[in-house]
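#struct-help
A.M.: can someone run this one for me? Single chain, 517 residues.
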Amino acid sequence: MKARINPWIASIPLMLAVFIYVLDGTIANVALPHMAGTFSVTRDESMWILTSYMIACGIMVPMVDWFCKLLGRKLFFIISILVFTGASMLCGMVNNIELMILARILQGAGGGGILPITQAIMMENFQGDERPKAMAVFGLGIILAPVIGPTLGGWITDNWNWPWIFYINVPIGLVAAWLSQKLIFDPKYARKQKNVRTDKTGFFTLAVWLVTLQVVLDKGNTADWFNAPWVRWATLVSCIAAALFFWSQLKRKDTLVDLGVFRDKNFAMGTFIQVVIQAVLYASLVLLPQFLQGLMGYTAYLSGMAVMPRGIGSLISMSICGAIANKMDARWLTVIGLALVGVGSLIMGELNLQIANKNIIIPNFIMGFGLGLAMIPLMSATVQTLTNEQMTNASGLNNLLKTIGGAIGTSLVATALTRYAQIHQHFMVGHLHELNPVFTEKMQAMTGAFSQIAHPAVAHEMAGAMIYNQLLQQATLWAFMDAFRIIGIICFAIIPLVFLLKPVDKNAPAAEISIGH
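D.P.: on it. Structure tokens below:
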């Protein structure tokens, strides 16, 4: 017997699972130095705690459709939650870096199926007027969780201990798994299928591609990119593996993913825009805490709190978006959202070291408001012209590419900071010479001040060192400002692509959800 149930109630376990999965993508960032100390490893070695999680998620995401056919979507979703929850417990219990990396791999493998399945189920259960509201709720977890992750992680680390950033997942995950068993129902096309074949070639090439790509993106900047032979070789292997993966998926039968969904213009263009937005989101989430902690002297917790206005802005815009999405063209909402993100980024590009809190809060709020306004209608428009049978596969591909986009954005912003700081340092050093009266006057004044506590020769060296430190600080500040401006320019640059999407059909028939007992 099948009983009808409100789809909003069925969304509760979905959003609980999404929240803890997305939260763990950023919550560990601020606790990384504490973990490095616990395991007696360097900061660079501890980065594998983050990298291993992202690699495992990336490999699992495109395999979601295949696992759903093999096990049934509901069963695979529950298994994913339980694996993620169990691995979270292990992450808090381990006492060395090797076991921590293994636990994070398991956590990523379990979490990789959560996001695409949730998106697919919600897009199926809500249509017509209800779909934008459902996507607003879904987007709440996608955008809000990464924003509050550093704040929550910093507070837990400072007041309890870093293992608790993983332990908090356990009760939530168990509740989500139990509610999923009670509230989620598989339609016929999402049930277990017979004679599902394993695409060994696709799995192997996918794993090699994503592992080498993530390693290059994470370690390339430290190794000076293509000046390092191993980066060149790893990039070559990654490119070859990617080409073989896509070739196998196009030419062979019974593959991991169906690339045919990219023939849909809305899906292809909408996915590309979402990948760029994801890169912008993660790049900005890396930039602001580094700026505040590195140049402004904020603690990890305070820098996380400074990011909170972005979450508040997203929350407000999502609420507005859910209410007015059916009264406006989704493309115009996306355009307005992208423009606001661009404006907020350009304002951030005008900061200096004498700013007040409002100079951080206002542009951050604008960026968050714009992200919520852009993402919700865009997610609906991207899959509007797909069938329900295509949703799980399409969601997997969409989230795979967004994961890669986030990794690329993080890597590019790290490189931009390093390179722009070097460029600005080079230009500013050219002004530090005795023929520059401003420099000479400053040196004399500082030397005179230091002469009160040191020998004149030592005082001269101390004055020179202090001026050079100020130069490095200003060069780094300039690099941050350039990075924020580039993010703003990118947001404005992709606005014309939005109009290549077909408008969302607001008169699509609403769907009902039924639950099997």
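A.M.: thanks! The chain has a mean pLDDT of 83.
D.P.: also worth noting: The chain has three domains: 2-197+254-422+476-516, 199-253, 423-475.
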